[in-house]
## 1
Amino acid sequence: MTTKLTLTIEQSVAEKAKIFAKGHQKSLSKIVNNFLKEMVDSETDSVGKSKVETLGGSLPLPKDFDEKKALDEYYREKYGL
């Protein structure tokens, strides 16, 4: 089931996103849907811990590490936005 959603974003971002979508032969709706789905799905695993928290102890992280900021930067780089 799908639903219509209206977003307000910067014009330059919209233009770049349209070019990106066309270059990858995907609709902008599909790209935004996948991006949001991945964001929501990556927030928590089945027991309510973030994916980063489930890796606790695997790598030492700085005390000032901001998981939300790191995820945001990752998605911006991944989707070129």
## 2
Amino acid sequence: MQPSPITEKPQPPAPNECCESGCDPCVWDIYRAALQQWEQAQQDANTDTTKPAA
């Protein structure tokens, strides 16, 4: 059994969460990584449900 996809889409950082001092990682980097992971999970879930039954 595969893990369930992440169902809640990550929210972007609030305007006051980025200090604009070049942090590594920046809150925006963390958000982008989480968003990519969420998008991939959604795509994987959609692919799994469209496969024909064997």
